Amino acid sequence: MDFNIDMLMKYLPLLVPILLVQVGLMIYCLVDLSRRAQTRGPKWLWAVVIVVGQLWGPILYLFVGRNE
């Protein structure tokens, strides 16, 4: 498969908002994680899940990891 700049330009308007949401959610979750006294599980593990899990990692942290 050849790299085609036209194909990239076609999908760029769709990819940029997804990328911004992903990065914004990751930053929000990492800041929230650093400010919490307790989480469900070790904080270092949640940091790895948030960073490596792309879009699903932060969502998983928000619904499972926070200890309200």
Q: What's this, in brief?
A:
The chain has 68 residues and is an all-alpha fold. It has one domain (16-65). The chain has 3 helices and no strands.
Account of the protein in words:
This protein has 68 residues and is mainly alpha-helical. The chain has one domain (16-65). It contains 3 helices and no strands. It has helices at 5-35, 43-52, 56-65. Helix 1 (5-35) packs parallel to helix 3 (56-65). The chain is elongated. 10% of the residues are buried. The mean pLDDT is 92.
Summarize the topology:
Blueprint: H1 5-35, H2 43-52, H3 56-65
Helix pairs in contact: 1-2, 1-3, 2-3
Work out the helix count: 3
Q: Helices and strands: which structural class? A: mainly alpha
- Number of DSSP-assigned strands: 0
Low-confidence stretches: none
Oligomer: single chain
Q: How many structurally independent domains?
A: 1
Q: Rg from C-alpha positions?
A: 16 Å
How much of the polypeptide forms β-strand, as a percent range?
under 5%
What's the rounded overall pLDDT mean?
A: 92
For the report, how would you describe the main beta sheet? none
H/E series: HHH
Shape: elongated
Determine the N-to-C terminus distance.
48 Å
Percent of residues in helices comes to over 70%
